[in-house]
Write a structure and sequence with these properties.
The structure is a homodimer. By secondary structure, chain A is of the alpha/beta class. The first copy, chain A, has one domain (3-184): Carbamate kinase. Chain A has helices spanning 11-15, 17-29, 41-50, 66-90, 130-137, 160-171, 204-212, 220-232, and strands at residues 3-9, 33-38, 56-58, 61-63, 95-98, 106-110, 122-127, 141-144, 147-149, 155-157, 176-183, 201-202, 237-242, 252-254. Chain A has an 8-stranded mixed sheet, sandwiched between helices. A two-stranded antiparallel ribbon of chain A has the order 3-4. A two-stranded antiparallel ribbon of chain A has the order 6-7. In chain A, helix 3 packs across helix 4 and helix 6 runs parallel beside helix 8. The radius of gyration of chain A is 18 Å and the shape is globular. Chain A starts with a strand and ends with a strand.
Chain lengths: 256, 256
């Protein structure tokens, strides 16, 4: 199968013009087929504030009421997504900006209300990768916004890491997929105070050892759990790194 | 060639939920391949006002400064477009929401400044209909927002009538295209005070006669000129009518 790289970048990188341009310069140079998944939370919060809409967060997760759903639909699907698409087109990369509603790529179910009502938030149910693959094989580079739909006419706010992971899994039926999660450090660090203490490779036994030693903790745990899930579902390689390292091939490789 | 219907609807219809749902019920029932082009000016003005951004209009045309470009990119490309796409998906219509930047479908040039500087407004230069046709032949229904790009990284605000006309022309190399312009009346009226005095067919000599008689005047003149241009460029049929008439086949047919 031909190689495909799926890069997930958070809001911070795509929302500041300098870091966005640097990222896209690197992304442009990546060989083979590619997909970009982006966030945009900071812009959504900023626009919401200007519109007089309060951003409610519970444990770092956004509560998406109807007003906020409109904001994230505008900001993720319009402002951030199209800025990236236009910037890629300027680099000769034939990008297409998509949400999960477009071509029914990602259908979700509104998260059931347990203790907390997150509102219009989608838990991914199904990724339809066939048409997406067809586009990719035509040389098109999909740029995915963190939005899905419920098949009943509603857009749903959806975690960008989840979109990246689920899309990578679905595309692994068609391509040899490398999934790169960008975050604010060069990789998983052996010592959080030493920027260069990047662990090169983590397999399942390593992971369990590092968790026991509290080398790996907090938000990194679900990230790595997702990585193992993706690998189990057919993704060839998962890398966790800083956006600036994507082209250099740095970071931490998660392997089975 | 197989039949394709391209329907252009203005902002008013897609921005009010009742009229949007009615439109989409009719649009869903249209036979054959189809494309929807939408506006969204009222929503853009509303959001801009809430953001404290002034909407400047000259002779009914929007002046698009950088702030307003961000607003129309959000509102047309995100809010309005994705609402339509999700609503079509709920009806089993496999829609994809696109701007001109996506897959480089429509490249424009920023309108040259003469007496008036309209800002980030695009005059369409080139429609690339090949990938769009491929998608359509796969059963996908494109929903086009009134935005294009300049190939240098900038989105440009672009008249929805122009997008509809230029896209219809480009698609006429691949399909037998009917272009339907929806506006607030049932068709071109013989007597503007009589809602039912719709002129069924207008050819070039009729048009010239009606202009001389002032039956046709004002904003209808560029609409019909565009229609003739589209017909000359290979579009099979142009119809001017009310959104509610699209499925019924009413309205005024412009013919060569």
């Amino acid at each position: 199968m031909e190689k495909l790289t799926l890069v997930k970048v958070g809001g911070k990188i795509v929302e500041e013009n300098d870091s966005l341009q640097t990222l896209l310069n690197d992304f442009m140079m990546l060989d083979g087929y590619k997909v970009l998944v982006h966030g945009g939370g900071r812009s959504a919060t900023k626009i919401a504030t200007r519109l007089g809409i309060e951003s409610k967060m519970i444990d770092g997760r956004r509560v998406t009421d109807e007003d906020m759903l409109n904001v994230v639909t505008m900001v993720y699907g319009g402002l951030v997504n199209k800025k990236i698409v236009a910037a890629l087109q300027a680099r000769g990369v034939n990008a297409v900006g998509l949400t999960g509603a477009d071509m029914n790529i990602i259908q979700s179910v509104k998260r059931p209300v347990k203790e907390i009502d997150y509102g219009f938030v989608g838990d991914v149910e199904k990724v339809n990768a066939q048409l997406l693959s067809l586009l990719i094989q035509q040389g098109i580079v999909p740029v995915l916004a963190p939005l899905t739909h419920d098949g009943q006419g509603n857009m749903l706010n959806t975690n960008a890491d989840t979109i990246a992971g689920e899309t990578a899994k679905a595309l692994s039926s068609f391509f040899d997929v490398t999934l790169i999660y960008c975050f604010e450090k060069k990789g998983v660090l052996m010592d959080e105070n030493q920027e260069d203490s990047v662990i090169e490779t983590i397999n399942r036994p390593d992971y369990e050892k590092y968790v026991a030693q509290k080398v790996i903790q907090g938000g990194m745990i679900p990230k790595i759990e997702n990585a193992f899930q993706a690998l189990n579902a057919g993704v060839s390689k998962v890398i966790i790194t800083e956006a600036s390292q994507v082209l250099k091939g740095g970071g931490t490789s998660i392997v089975l």
